[in-house]
Structure formats: C-alpha cells, structure tokens
Design goal:
The complex is a heterodimer of chains A (about 290) and B (about 325).
Chain A lengths: L18 H25 L4 H5 L2 H11 L14 E4 L5 H10 L5 H5 L30 H14 L6 E6 L6 H12 L5 E7 L2 E2 L2 E2 H4 L5 H7 L3 E6 L3 H13 L7 E6 L7 H4 L11 H11 L5
Parallel strand pairs in A: 1-2, 2-3, 3-7, 6-7
Antiparallel strand pairs in A: 4-5
Helix pairs in contact in A: 1-3, 1-4, 1-12, 3-10, 6-7
Chain B lengths: L14 H4 L4 H12 L4 E5 L3 H4 L1 H7 L4 E3 L4 H13 L3 E7 H7 L1 H9 L6 E5 L17 H6 L5 E3 L4 H10 L7 E4 L21 E4 L4 E5 L3 H14 L4 E5 L2 E3 L3 H10 L2 E9 L4 H11 L5 E7 L9 H7 L4 H13 L9
Parallel strand pairs in B: 1-2, 1-3, 3-4, 4-6, 5-6, 8-9, 8-11, 11-12
Antiparallel strand pairs in B: 5-10, 7-9
Classes of the chains: A alpha/beta (about 290), B alpha/beta (about 325).
C-alpha cells in the first residue's frame, strides 16, 4: 500500500504481516509524526526530523515486534527499549500514552514547568521509559548490562536499542560493541537510525562513520541493513531476529532512513535537526502527513 | 635460559597474595552472596589489583570481565541493576571518579540505580605511577553528584563493614578506598553506620577530622601530641556524603581548632565539606585544610609521597603543632 505525499511503502506485504497489520503500523507511524508536531507546539522548539526518521521503527517495535502489556509498564518479562538518541523522545511519549503507561495529562504537560516529560526521556519520572538517555553513547552499554543481567537470571526478553548514526562517533558505543560481542549477547538488538545528518551537518562530513556495516561486522556483530521506512521489511526482519533464540551474536540493524521523512523541505535541509513550525506551517505539515493537501 | 627466579622477584598476579588487605573487598562480596544477595561484580582489567580475582574464582557466574573500558562498565552496571542485580564495579579511583564521572551521574545517580562503585588505589597511593593514576579530585567530583553516597573507609575492616551496612542503602555508593596495604584501624567485627562519623577521641585544643588512609596516621599523630599535653580529638569522617554535620558542629564547639586531613586536593574534598558546615552554621572555629594543595603530586614511592606531603603521622603532627602555634590558619596555607 502507499501513503500519499509522505511515506511510500512497498505494495507487496511481507510474509507474516497482513494488510490490516500493515495499514495499522503505517497509521501508527503517522500518529508518531502528528503527535510530535502537536507536542512540539507546546515547547516551541523540538527535534521533528529526528522523530520522523524513526517513526516507522518505533511503530514496528511497539505495535508489532516487542512483547509489551498495555497498562503494565513495569511488567518484568517485557522486551526492553532504550532510546540512545534520546532527543527523539517526543516521538516516544505519545506511544507510552497510547499504551496506557503514562496518562493523557502527563503527555499534555510536555516540557511545561515541572513536567516529567522533557526533550530527553527520564526513567525515574516516566513509566514506560526503560532507561534515561540524553547523553549520547551510553545506551548500548546499559543495554548490554541489561541483556547480560537477564541472561544470568534466565530471563528471556530481548533488549532493543535505537541509536543515532551521529551517536556512532561516541567512543563508548564501541566499548559496548566489543563487550556485547565478547559476552555473546544474542538477545541484544541495536538499530541504527542511519538518517545521515547530525546537528552540524551530514554525518559523513562531520566525522565519517562508513563503512558502517563492515565496522559492526568486524566487531563480531550480526549485521542487517533495511529500509527504515518500510514497516513490512522492518517488521519482518525484527520479528525474525527476535524469534532466533539460539543466536549468540548481538545484532546491529542499520536502518536506512531519511531525516525529516514526510516533510519535503525538512528532508533536504539539515538545519531542521532542531526547529519550530509556526501554527500555519504545522497545519500544512499535518495535512501533508495525512495525505491531504499541503 | 634458566627459568628459575630469585625469591625476591615477583610477578603481578602474585601481588595480591602478599597484600592481604586486598582480600577485604572480595571477602565482603562473598559474604553477601552467601547471605543471598544478588551480587554481580565487575572490573576493568584490574582484578588482581583490587583482589576481585578471589571473588571471580569463587563465583565465576557472578563476575564480569569488562576489559579496559571503564565507562562501558559503569553504564552496563546500571543496566545490570535494572534487572535485579546488585552490581559492584571496581577500577582505579582516578578512572572511576574522573573518567566515568558522567556515566556515574547520568546512568547511576540520576537513574537511581543501586550500583556500588569501588574506586581503589585512590589519592596518591599509586606513587610513581604518576598523575594519570592519582585521584586527588574524586571526592570533589563524586560528592557534587546528587543522589550519590560517598564513603571513604580507613582500612579493610571498615570497608567490609561499610559494604555490609550498604545492603539496604537506597542510594548508589562511591567507595573511595586505598591500595589494600593500610594497617588495620578497626576490629574485624566493627559496625559501620553510613552517615555517622566515628569519633575516636575528643580534644579541647584540636580535633583532627580525617578520612581514608590518613585516619590511622592522624590517630598516631594525636597520641604523640597528647604526650606533650595537647588535648587532641580524632574523628574518622568515613562517610563524606551525607556528611555528619552534627559531628562537625560538636567538634567545632569543643575544640579551638579543627584540622581536616585527606589524601585529596584541599579544594572540594573533606576540608571543603567541613568548611561549608562551619560557614553555614556561623561557627567561628578555625579550620586548617590539610591535604594536597591544588597541585599534581610529585613522583615517588607512596610512603615517600606521604612524608613529603605531610600526610604521615609525623607530618600531621608537625602541621598540627604549626597551626596551634600560629593564630592565623591562613599563614599555613599556600
């Protein structure tokens, strides 16, 4: 199926994903984008494009791949999700509200004085956040600790960690990469949102990270590349990876994405890493994402 | 060539066999496991320096080798804690308290994870290994981190007792410990109360407030001063945070002079913490902060450094005599 104007998806639905499921996941990705625009209006500044690049990844994980229980953010056997690129939290909070992990009131308090919800996620204040982030480079280490700790306790959950591609420049990522491979953390699945941009410009102009797949492979990780906006491919791959209980290598999924995906002028302008859409532009963006005019 | 070596030669891995102080850490953790606590220990390629090799041999499934990646170790320890483990991670204090400062702040303290951080070979105890291996700022960095308890035991028995006392302590803890060669100050069965200073003695003329290795030296110095008729008290401020403010005030009210002694920069450390209390409470009591005076330590064997920086008993005694003779503390300070 195809979404107008914004996000196109392969018409051929992948094995295991019904037409309805596919439509639902596309709808949830759209929901993430629309909610991010709505919430950022409160703060009057935010990371639209960092959310837009990972909207399908978040949708696939939360609405299909991960084992979660609505209304039970602390369910012990849930799959874990860590948002290394914590600045995309404004795309995650609406999902937490949708799952009943946080209240509507909490969601609407986003960035207001004393709110639990800021630009970066805080596990001590926000049910459903499995670990706080904001300082890039930590999340993979924390995830490795979780995965190793879970294995020692004979727990079966999977740890999913969404990293930014700019985050690859942090040295601690590679400490964690060595550690996770050495300890054979097969239940750890890292996803790199390879949207190609960071605050100062193109990642490959700032400090290049290619050949990225080869790097992870050389660190003894299993590596997959996927179109990060194709929910069918994403879901199919992540389901398979999660189902493989005998794999003894951690996995890195490099999701090829477009920063600002869905809003054409954001897709071509790196300055939109951080920005604000005035109400009339926000409305046009909303219309565009909904496949209406704009 | 002939592979036999002289009995005076030694190799690194046998080091802990000749420094029994190092066993306190492992033994305390082994006790916790035997009591049913979900201990998980880790170290960054220094298990023979901190003695955790003994724990690792006892409980290999509870020991994690992190390799030379201290920041990864601290963050991963936080991850371990989220799933129910009680992680103890150890490395040199210079790396833990400085290199990993941000991981401790973000992943341990801010996230309220009950991680136990063991910064060993603190202060200038690594002697001629040099500034890279000295930790003379770690009290300062660690006590500025909200939600982190900071404990600096004077010896092995008090380290073990502090670990026993920490089981139900709600905050993460930074343990600032020595190199395992400190003479025992306390009995094996001592009880440690987190947040309570250990008042060894009281004095009208002077109270020495020390933490870590200098406690033993301060006790010895006080004995000599007393034999000259000087009334000296000694307090072991083993918990730096939360600081026992009442104990500081009691000492300030009783003694004409306070002197802090620490194996740390006088900026930001124990002396600074005591000074904050005195100033905030409006005490007029004079204070000499004795420690490393905002400089990088010279290179020398540790005991030579302790003598040079007047952190041994003779040095502390000399500093105390000097300051008691002079009316102004400032004349002692650089």
């Amino acid at each position: 199926m195809t979404m107008q104007n914004g996000i196109t998806h392969r018409s051929k639905v992948q094995e295991g994903l019904t037409e309805n499921q596919h439509r639902w996941l596309c709808d949830r990705a759209q929901f993430v984008r629309l909610e991010a625009i709505r919430l950022i209006e409160i703060a009057k500044v935010g990371h639209y494009t960092s959310v837009f690049s990972c909207a399908e990844i978040l949708a696939a994980l939360f609405y299909d791949v991960m084992s979660l229980r609505r209304g039970e953010p602390h369910w012990q056997d849930r799959d874990r999700f860590l948002l290394g690129k914590g600045h995309a939290a404004v795309g995650l909070f609406p999902i937490l509200a949708d799952f009943g992990f946080i209240t509507r009131e909490m969601l609407e308090s986003y960035t207001r004085l004393g709110s639990p919800l800021g630009d970066h996620p805080d596990m001590t204040k926000v049910p459903g956040i499995d670990f706080s982030s904001g300082s890039l480079g930590h999340a993979l280490s924390v995830s490795a600790g979780m995965a190793l700790g879970a294995r020692r306790l004979h727990k079966d959950f999977t740890v999913f960690t969404l990293l930014g591609d700019g985050e690859m420049q942090e040295g601690q990522v590679w400490e964690a990469a060595l550690f996770a491979a050495h300890h054979r953390l097969g239940r750890l699945i890292a996803i790199v949102d390879r949207n190609g941009f960071q605050l100062d410009g193109r990642v490959d102009d700032v400090i290049g990270i290619e050949p990225l797949s080869a790097k992870w492979r050389s660190f003894n990780w299993e590596v997959h590349e996927v179109d990060g906006h194709n929910v069918a491919d994403l879901t199919s791959l992540l389901r398979q990876l999660k189902a493989d209980k005998v794999r003894d290598k951690p996995v890195c999924v490099i999701a090829q994405t477009v920063k600002g995906k869905g809003i054409p002028y954001m897709e071509t302008e790196p300055g939109w890493h951080l920005g604000y859409l005035a109400p009339e532009d926000a409305q046009k963006a909303i219309n565009h994402i909904k496949g209406q005019e704009g | 060539m002939d592979k036999t070596i002289s009995s005076d030669s030694w190799q690194y891995r046998a080091l802990n066999a000749i420094t029994p102080g190092l066993n306190y850490l492992s033994d305390a953790l082994i006790d916790l496991v035997e009591q049913g606590h979900p201990v998980m220990a880790g170290s960054a390629d220094l298990q023979y320096s901190n003695g955790l090799n003994k724990f690792a041999a006892c409980y290999p499934e509870r020991y994690i080798q992190f390799g030379i990646s201290e920041q990864n170790m601290v963050s991963a320890a936080a991850g371990l804690a989220t799933v129910g483990h009680m992680p103890f991670v150890a490395t040199f204090a210079s790396f833990l308290g400085l290199l990993c400062c941000e991981q401790i702040r973000m992943d341990v303290a801010y996230c309220k994870q009950p991680v136990r951080l063991i910064g060993h070979h603190t202060g200038i105890s690594l002697g001629f290994y040099g500034t890279s291996h000295h930790a003379t700022e770690d009290i300062s960095t660690m006590r500025a981190i909200s939600g982190l308890t900071v404990i600096s035991p004077a010896d092995g028995p008090s380290l073990a007792a502090a670990i026993r006392a920490s089981v139900d302590w709600p905050e993460p803890i930074y343990f600032r410990i020595g190199r395992g060669r400190e003479p025992d100050v306390y009995a094996q069965d001592m009880t440690f109360q987190i947040g309570t200073a250990i008042e060894h003695s009281q004095g009208d003329d002077l109270t020495i407030i020390a933490c870590g290795m200098p406690v033993k030296e301060a006790l010895d110095a006080a004995n000599v001063l007393r034999s000259d008729g000087i009334s000296v008290g000694v307090m072991d401020m083993a918990t730096l945070k939360p600081l026992d403010r009442e104990a500081v005030l009691r000492a300030a009210q009783r003694s004409g002079l306070l002197m802090t002694v620490e194996e740390h920069n006088i900026i930001g450390g124990l002396g600074a913490a005591v000074a904050e209390v005195l100033a905030e409470e409006g005490c007029g009591t004079r204070l000499l902060r004795h420690g490393i005076r905002d400089e990088y330590s010279l290179i020398a064997p540790p005991n030579h450094l302790y003598a040079h920086y007047k952190l041994d008993a003779a040095g502390i005694e000399a500093m105390a005599r000097d300051v008691l003779k002079n009316s102004r503390v400032g004349s002692q300070q650089s």
